[in-house]
Amino acid sequence: MITDTLKPPRVALGTWAWGDSGETGNGYFGSNFTQAELEEIADKAHTAGFTLWDTAMVYGMGRSETILGKVLKRYARSDYQLSTKFTPQAAGAGGNPMEDMLKQSLANLGTEYIDLYWIHNPANVDRWTQHLVPLLKSGKVKHVGVSNHNLSEIERADGILGEAGFRVEAVQNHYSLLYRSSDDAGILSYCRNRSIPFFSYMVLEQGALNGRYSPETPLPEGTNRAQAYNSILPQLKALTDKLAAIGQKQGAEIPDVAIAWAIAKGTTPIIGITRPSYIDGLVRATSMSLSNEDISDLEALAGAANVNTRGWWEQEM
Ligand SMILES: NC(=O)c1ccc[n+]([C@@H]2O[C@H](COP(=O)([O-])OP(=O)(O)OC[C@H]3O[C@@H](n4cnc5c(N)ncnc54)[C@H](OP(=O)(O)O)[C@@H]3O)[C@@H](O)[C@H]2O)c1
């Protein structure tokens, strides 16, 4: 029943931070954007060939999707791909909460279809996975994936979809130098063996690994990411110094190397993009190569940082 295979890009673009824009502001990232600023990011991304945009209805409760939809209006629908999510905890009380949330996402994004639709987390895999089937059959959803699922939950979801002639086509989990639980739990190798694209989120640990933040210049006060990361910034110094040293040899910067690492591990990073200049970093990241020694040095230093960056919404894998 699957008509075409999902072709993952080398890097996808994340827009969770875009949901902070608007009257409620701040929230997770402390970001506030004008539409013109975001259009500049999108123009630069599209010129560089980065065209898969990841969002979720719950990012700013519709704000991220709505802003993204407005920004992408300037392109033909066939020139970009949309990835958004059904979040079980935000399900409504109607007869088909997944269809209802999808309708809301389609309206927010101003589109007829979603290229890649995710179940955001594994709350009740048996209940929710089957609801993907009619959405796939209707054509409103082209491909489906699961996020924050552990290995047995991925297999269970795949079994449910398999009964209807579909399958889990992508997996999206937190995966960074500092947080490698999907590798340790065998999810990466499971995906590799079955040619399932693995999308890694929070590769830059919400900015904590981009080298711009330190105890002297912490993440924006009052935001969730400040609360999660400011206290561990001193422990990340040896790792970011090494990222800088590796980057210097190839004319690249700290975040570029962290992103190149995630690509070298066979994953598609979803990078939360907040400035036009960050697109240059993605171009560098996708054109650099890391030696096995670079990779093992980085992983050793990341382990030695001895931090646990698991998000509050994530389970142990
Ligand atoms: N499925 C899930 O449960 C889940 C959970 C989390 C995230 N996600 C997805 O993954 C995406 C990425 O995660 P995230 O945004 O939370 O974290 P992230 O990608 O690790 O970090 C994003 C932050 O890093 C900085 N940054 C981004 N690109 C940079 C570059 N090239 N150079 C320097 N700094 C850079 C920006 O901070 P400044 O603005 O401070 O510079 C940005 O806000 C999200 O937007 C979302 O689409 C999914």
Question: What can you tell me about this protein's structure?
Answer:
The protein is of the alpha/beta class and 317 residues long. The chain has a single domain (12-305), classed as TIM Barrel, CATH 3.20.20.100. 40% of the residues lie in helices and 12% in strands. It has 13 helices and eight strands. The chain has helices at 35-48, 63-72, 97-109, 125-128, 132-138, 151-163, 181-184, 187-193, 224-229, 237-248, 254-264, 277-287, 292-305; strands at 12-14, 52-54, 81-86, 114-119, 141-147, 170-174, 198-201, 268-272. The protein has an eight-stranded parallel beta barrel with strand order 1-2-3-4-5-6-7-8, surrounded by four helices. α2 links the parallel β2 (52-54) and β3. α1 packs parallel to α12 (277-287) and α10 packs antiparallel against α13 (292-305). The longest helix has 14 residues, at 35-48. The chain starts with 11 loop residues before the first strand and ends in a 12-residue tail after the last helix. The model has no long low-confidence stretch (mean pLDDT 95). The site of NADP nicotinamide-adenine-dinucleotide phosphate (NAP) has 27 residues, from β8 and α12.
List descriptors.
13 helices, NAD(P)_OxRdtase_dom_sf, TIM Barrel, alpha/beta, globular, oxidoreductase activity, oxidoreductase, 317 residues, binds NADP nicotinamide-adenine-dinucleotide phosphate, 40% helix
